[in-house]
Fold this sequence. Notes:
Blueprint: E1 2-6, H1 15-30, E2 34-38, H2 40-43, E3 44-46, E4 52-54, E5 63-68, H3 73-85, E6 90-94, H4 107-111, E7 117-120, H5 123-132, E8 138-140, E9 160-165, H6 176-183, E10 190-196, H7 199-202, E11 210-214, H8 217-225, E12 229-232, H9 242-247, H10 253-260, E13 264-267, E14 281-282, H11 285-294, H12 296-313, H13 316-331
Parallel strand pairs: 1-2, 1-5, 5-6, 6-7, 7-8, 9-10, 9-12, 10-11, 12-13, 13-14
Antiparallel strand pairs: 3-4
Helix pairs in contact: 1-13
Amino acid sequence: VMIRFWIDSFRTGRASHRLRIDLPLQGLIDRGIDCTKVHRKIVYDVNKQGVTSMTDAINPQHDIIIINKEMKPEIFDQHIKPFQKLNVPVGMDLCDNKFDVRDGNNSLTQLVPQMDFMTANNETMQKVIKQRFPNKPVYWYTDPCEREFEPAKSFAGGTLKFCWYGSISSLKYFDYRRCVRKLHTLHVPWRLDMMSGQIERRMKVIHPNIYLHDWTYEAQGKMVRESDIVLMPIGHLQPGDQRYERVRTKSHNRLVDAIAQGRWVITSPMPQYIPLQNYSWQGPLLKGVSYYLENKKEVKNKITQGQAWIKKRATDKTAAKQLIRIYEDIKGITITP
């Protein structure tokens, strides 16, 4: 199999780049499959006379190209279309429902119609794309878990530690004031750690029990490790709220990462979270806290079972397997029995 992920500015700080490209790529390489990240400087060569030619980074006979949503239409026209003319299937991976975002020049509306296929990171998002483009093949491959598995944790006493992490843009889905009002009714001492990119600059601390931290990959892992409960509430978003359309297509990535780290997660239900509802609390905040405090053994069991679910269904191995099936379907061949 030859899968080429075309990305011109790869950033490890971006979850979508790690989850949609790096981890699946590693999973494919582990299976002995030829898979690389490419960009225009690898794919094209300019000689001394200034003549541009294609290198052998892409094999038109065998390869498929997957681009991501940051692709600029002019780069697509100039550098990727020539491969489409050589019958190389080109698809776009879309992990965010931004079809209705008015960004002046919504590149999605320009680029998606030109794709030979689309990929998504979950079935809900797959359906959204399919509704918009009924004649286009739309596939999905999972967002792999990217955290190391750690033993399930139950409450050991002392201060009850909550944490929340997410991008600054997902902060608007977290009604932390309402959350704090609820936590005040608890009969145990508590604290809430919140982590996001440049959060200290962007948010005023509104409460002595809240601690703000700027995001790094390592700092998030450490914060979750030191917490009891991970909060992902977006509970005040209901169908009908325009933002709900953005949220309901979100993948399970934050949930699987927190369960992998052995933590009890309290969140509101979302389509991608439903398969994990037996291993986390998808409902009212305070009930989820009481359950955690009162059922230590069950909590540990649920988290451990959740980790088994993740190992089976949401790793780089899973993503690799799904990508092989996608490749087979696009090329009309069978690689593995």
